[in-house]
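Retro notes (design track)

What went well: tokenization of the new backbones is finally stable.
What didn't: we kept losing track of which sequence belonged to which structure.
Fix going forward: every design gets posted as structure first, then sequence, in one message. First example under the new rule, 450 residues:
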């Protein structure tokens, strides 16, 4: 996965089926690549012949370079092709790995722990030993190796290579390395929540939210809504976390539950994610607008019809007056929207007011890098999405539809909705929401990797 250079968001006019002109706003978002770097810059030499590569690694390892010692140990665990002079040497492999671990390498300690497991990734010729596997894992974890931390907590909670021991699991959850690790925050959040360890779970769940977890914001929302473990009840903050988790089914269920109780804020967020529903659900939503807003009904039916919904196709045929040109006339230029709109951070709870285009830019700036589709990032796939939303009377973007999603199958459409359909509310200018109620606004997102 490369560095995420950014999502270039262009606010533009248009509708599906017409020419979409891109204008204006560009947002640069960066996210660091999460890898562990070796201390040796030249210890791989992957393009060298096997015997040359090993000779260079040996010289580097003998100089005391820990990175080369680890590479050399791993090199000795397999037989390089077309190189009869450089074969396996498991004794040498263990010696170099142990030397690197003795020098303080957390990575080497991790590989030693792995070597004592029943199915090691790199075989060092050692017999499985749960005791030694645990000892080396704890040595690596003490030095800050996050994968070892994760294995230890999983083992102490599930009895994988240790006995079940909640106290030891909590010890490693509270380890100083976990406090700075985004990689492990989601797992810690889940385990602590399941064991009702609130408010201890709060910092882990918060960091997991920052890393784009769909699970953590739901857990945070439920905890804040119910006041778990002594947490102060905060319905508004809980709703903000549910919004961060959308379109997660549990978040949608929680929002619908609150909406059914009359919560307007929860109802608005729940409605804003209509674009992720199947054609049947979009058609059902369209039906609710047939009397109050026939043009919105037509927009939704047209989308459902394009997805093959027979009933929607019949409705469109019966209403030839709902034309693409009339729908396009309802489009409003995002940069021309007046009024001040608030951007709320669910973590700090700070609220700031900006013009609409700036509010969207700041919202995407906070959320864009977090929600870059993991599958696409891992495969280094870039994409383009076009999202169109309706402007509600309360100042929210609702009924968002993905008009274009390329390439399909990588989650760009869902990610775009999570970025765009964010909680934006009016503040101090009630006329702003009313002026654009029922109008549509369209966004083009270009997803790129660097």
């Amino acid at each position: 996965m490369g560095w995420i250079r950014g999502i270039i968001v262009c606010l533009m006019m248009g509708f599906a089926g017409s020419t979409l002109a891109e204008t204006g706003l560009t947002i640069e978002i960066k996210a660091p690549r999460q890898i562990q770097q070796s201390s040796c810059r030249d210890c791989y030499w992957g393009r060298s012949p096997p015997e040359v590569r090993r000779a260079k690694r040996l010289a580097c390892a003998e100089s005391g370079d820990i990175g080369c010692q680890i590479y050399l140990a791993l090199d000795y665990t397999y037989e390089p092709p077309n190189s009869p002079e450089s074969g396996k040497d498991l004794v040498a492999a263990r010696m170099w790995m142990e030397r690197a671990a003795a020098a303080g390498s957390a990575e080497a300690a991790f590989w030693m722990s792995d070597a004592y497991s029943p199915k090691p990734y790199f075989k060092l010729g050692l017999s499985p030993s749960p005791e030694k596997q645990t000892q080396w894992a704890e040595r690596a974890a003490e030095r800050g190796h996050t994968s070892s931390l994760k294995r230890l907590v999983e083992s102490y909670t599930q009895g994988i290579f240790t006995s079940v021991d909640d106290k030891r699991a909590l010890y490693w959850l509270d380890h100083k390395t976990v406090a700075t690790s985004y990689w492990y925050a989601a797992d810690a959040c889940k385990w602590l929540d399941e064991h009702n360890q609130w408010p201890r779970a709060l910092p882990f769940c918060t960091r997991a939210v920052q890393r784009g977890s769909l699970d953590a914001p739901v857990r945070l929302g439920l905890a804040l809504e119910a006041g778990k473990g002594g947490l102060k009840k905060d319905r508004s903050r809980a709703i903000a976390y549910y919004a961060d988790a959308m379109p997660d089914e549990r978040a949608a269920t929680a929002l619908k539950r609150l909406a059914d109780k009359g919560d307007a804020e929860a109802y608005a967020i729940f409605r804003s994610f209509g674009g992720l529903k199947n054609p049947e659900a979009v058609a059902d939503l369209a039906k609710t607008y047939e009397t109050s807003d026939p043009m919105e009904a037509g927009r939704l039916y047209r989308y459902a019809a394009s997805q093959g919904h027979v009933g929607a196709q019949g409705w469109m045929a019966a209403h030839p007056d709902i034309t693409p040109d009339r729908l396009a006339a309802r489009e409003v230029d995002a940069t021309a929207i007046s009024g001040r709109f608030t951007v709320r951070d669910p973590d700090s709870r700070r609220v700031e007011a900006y013009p609409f285009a700036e509010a969207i830019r700041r919202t995407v700036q906070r959320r864009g890098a977090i929600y870059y589709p993991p599958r696409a990032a891992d495969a280094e796939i870039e994409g383009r999405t076009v999202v169109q939303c309706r402007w509600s009377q309360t100042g929210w973007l609702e009924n968002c539809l993905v008009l274009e999603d390329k390439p399909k199958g990588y989650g760009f459409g869902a990610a775009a909705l999570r970025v765009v359909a964010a909680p934006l509310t009016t503040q101090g200018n009630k006329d702003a929401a009313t002026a654009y109620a029922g109008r549509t606004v369209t966004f083009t997102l270009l997803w790129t990797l660097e």
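Added context from the reviewer: Strands lie at 6-12, 341-344, 351-354, 383-391, 397-406, 424-426, 440-448.
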